[in-house]
What we know:
The chain has helices at residues 10-18, 47-60, 73-85, 105-110, 156-161, 170-182, 198-209, 217-223, 233-245, 258-266, 279-286, 325-336, 338-348, 366-374, 389-402, 408-421; strands at residues 36-43, 64-71, 92-94, 135-136, 139-140, 143-144, 146-155, 186-189, 270-276, 292-295, 308-312, 315-318, 351-352, 377-378.
Amino acid sequence: MFRFPRPLGLSxxxxxxxxxxxxxxxxxxEGGSGSVELSVTASAxxxxxxxxxxxxxxxxxxDVRVKTAFADINTLQKELPDQLRAGRGPDVFTVWxxxxxxxxxxxxxxxxxxxxxxxxxxxxxxPEEIQSVVGTSGGSFVVPVSFSAxxxxxxxxxxxxxxxxxxxxxxxxxxxxxxxxEHGKVLLALGNETPWVRxxxxxxxxxxxxxxxxxxxxxxxxxxGKTFADSAWxxxxxxxxxxxxxxxxxxxxxxTTYEESLDQVAAGQAVGTVQIASALxxxxxxxxxxxxxxxxxxxxxxxADTRMPGAVSAAYGVRAGTPRRKAALAFVDFLxxxxxxxxYNRTGATLPAxxxxxxxxxxxxxEVTTRQKAGTTVSFMDQHWPNSxxxxxxxxxxxxxxxxxTDVGKALEAMDAAYLRxx
Length: 423
């Protein structure tokens, strides 16, 4: 189910212009007296970003009390859809753009669990290149909030301690693994006990091994029969395993969680980690003195070929039928505003999904900003997969590869089978 960008018609644009997003007073009964308690659920990786938005929203809307909850990504993707189907989900919640997991925009929209947000004013500012992952021809169903990336996050202090610099080639990367080990450290902390972490290094490598030469690879899979097994996905997975064999990662990666991997970086046991950009805020929470830098993970010896996964990351939807609809819409309107976008991304070390001139990017993600402007980023791979089983199969196959229970060819064949089941 590849989702192409949809045009925003003139009549819809006129309605959007006239739609007020200032937000009027709310009440417990959405029209009676008292205050509203609005429930908002977000990923734990976005805690600091969401808390900054909630604080300002409540200042602007003193008659709304926002009750926040945070959960790890795996829990959200597993439990949120069932909660929404049972009518007991939160009013506003994290929704993954595209169609790659059970809590993605496409999956939730297919079950009529999302409020249609097409008439909200923020739609006028959605860049054309991301429209395909926030809705379909039936409208838009999420407010995109952050543009994030996947890359190597370095502790500059530890990098200096081992006498290294961010690698720009594959050979330099492997050499730096050796250098770190000679100094009693590992180059990259890897928490593969946490399933969603298992995809990150694959994506970081595939961005170059596949998409540098075939930027339309996703369309090819949908329409011309291209497969994972007969593509340079094979090269990427082999390189992933080569990094492990070379000692680039900590021991016991399948017994190490996401949180423990960040602890290794904060403690100086690891030089860095391959993560999403929002991990920078988590690392700074652990050690406010950390000087961090994010760069693309090289996969070849030609720096000009290097690509970096970069796409809409955090997005939020409203539960269809929520009795607190007015307050929920006011909240997503604020998330879609310039002020809301800037607050969220300033705290979270990411970029606004709806760009504006007043935002100043975190210096640590300078390369992400440069690559976004230069067009050397590629979408997160799962955002264009036809069903959530491909991503889940990827998680399982990476675990099997690291446990020695399968090989690269069989792993990719399993992903191909999952892809075909959802077409």
